[in-house]
Amino acid sequence: MAFARGRVNARLPPEVNRVLYIRNLPFEIKTEEMYDIFGKYGAIRQIRKGNTKETRGTAYVVYEDIYDAKNAVDHLSGFNVANRYLIVLYYNTTKLNKKQDQKKKEEDLREVQAKYNLNKDGTQKEEEEP
Question: Which controlled-vocabulary keywords does the entry list (predicted)?
Fold first, then answer.
């Protein structure tokens, strides 16, 4: 039997990875506090907190080991920090790629509309007389 840091190397679900996406964080939480909370479950490579209006209250936590990340998700989802319940998810690259693909398609569509002088519904724009 193969062992990974004393644990049986069981098959993990496909969504499990080392990068966690955290939502519903208190806005005033400090990075050191996050290392204290998440570090209990294993060695952390990096923590990145959201710092814009749209990303406040979110963070990414990157663990060194995938099993530590799974342990953190299992134990910290719903954990109460400053009267806020954490939402701890595995980072999903396919969702990000879909958003980027959609933005690219929208951008391409606008370029085609501008190039061929089309309205949003695909009809030809009427030429303005001077």
Answer: mRNA processing, mRNA splicing, Nucleus, RNA-binding
Does residue 117 belong to any structural domain of this protein? no
Residue 23 lies in a domain: yes
What does the pLDDT look like over 84-129, one tens digit per residue? 999 999 998 666 556 667 777 777 778 777 877 777 666 677 766 5
**Residue that has been written with the tokens 């490579």 in this structure:** 45
CATH of the domain at 58: 3.30.70.330
- Asked whether residue 128 is domain-assigned, the answer is no
Both tokens of 37, joined, read: 């909370």
- pLDDT of res. 117: 79
**pTM for the whole thing?**
0.65
Sorted by sequence, the CB contacts under 8 Å of residue 77 that are 6+ apart come out as 86, 87, 88
- Total domains in the chain come to 1
Question: CB neighbours (10 Å) of residue 38?
Answer: 24
DSSP for 17-82 reads -SEEEEES--TT--HHHHHHHHHTTS-EEEEEE--STTTTT-EEEEESSHHHHHHHHHHHTT-EET
